[in-house]
Amino acid sequence: xxxxxxxxxxxxxxxxxxxxxxxxxxxxxxxxxxxxxxxxxxxxxxxxxxxxxxxxxxxxxxxxxxxxxxxxxxxxxxxxxxxxxxxxxxxxxxxxxxxxxxxxxxxxxxxxxxxxxxxxxxxxxxxxxxxxxxxxxxxxxxxxxxxxxxxxxxxxxxxxxxxxxxxxxxxxxxxxxxxxxxxxxxxxxxxxxxxxxxxxxxxxxxxxxxxxxxxxxxxxxxxxxxxxxxxxxxxxxxxxxxxxxxxxxxxxxxxxxxxxxxxxxxxxxxxxxx
Length: 274
Ligand SMILES: Nc1ncnc2c1ncn2[C@@H]1O[C@H](COP(=O)(O)OP(=O)(O)OP(=O)(O)O)[C@@H](O)[C@H]1O
Description:
Elements (H helix, E strand, L loop, with lengths): L21 E12 L2 E12 L3 E5 L6 H8 L7 E6 L2 E3 L4 H7 L1 E3 L12 H9 L7 H6 L2 H20 L15 H14 L4 E5 L7 H17 L3 E5 L3 H7 L2 E6 L2 E6 L1 H5 L2 H8 L4
Parallel strand pairs: 3-8, 3-9, 6-7, 7-8
Antiparallel strand pairs: 1-2, 1-4, 4-5, 9-10
Helix pairs in contact: 3-5, 3-6
The structure holds adenosine-5'-triphosphate (ATP).
GO molecular function, one term: ATP hydrolysis activity
InterPro entries: AAA+_ATPase, ABC_AA/LPS_Transport, ABC_transporter-like_ATP-bd, BCA_ABC_TP_C, P-loop_NTPase
Organism: Nitratireductor pacificus pht-3B
């Protein structure tokens, strides 16, 4: 029998964009809800292969930005260029089809379903054959099912969650639920993975574990990551570059060290009026 491939050696499928080139380009995006300006004329990019953080005080527009990137919201102005294709509006399932997956601020899993089934559910967006095919259990559908199952098993190994594969996720501690949610996003084999507060509500040990998995996903699977996170220690340790939003505007963009020393950023976090 062939040994199972080492999941740590697996890479995200190639997309023709070289490491370090612009993968995602957000151009002059503005988004308002009625009179509330959530995002005002923000441009930022994410380079292939990097870990990019989006930070800022509460209400700065971070989650709105992720929602624009993955198609939940259509901005009133500006465009998004992903893998060289420009668009203003796109449905979330189309974003997944193009290689953008995300996790949510509050875990959004099927609580009564097992870890395995939740991750399979993430995989299902990539399944080509329809239910009729699956029921007929014809060769192509069977082969596809087996391939998907293998990918899911690799992810379960990768995230070290073998021991909870059959456990309904609602019964898991919060830190593990977050890890399963990461697994479900990975099952979509994203080129760009968006993580909305991956450490929220975690204790120190859980944060350390999650940080390690984020780095492993980036380095060993080659996945580009954009994340929102409030824990500054984590952000500064993990990220290659950080963009800072405040009241819907971009106030800084650079390496963790550059951003840390930026007076506008310090003022925003201290709540200095402007
Ligand atoms: N669906 C919505 N309807 C109306 N206003 C919204 C909606 N989503 C966001 N907003 C408003 O847009 C602004 C930016 O919100 P957003 O959630 O993007 O900020 P955030 O930086 O992610 O905040 P937090 O760190 O608290 O999650 C806020 O004033 C918020 O109240």
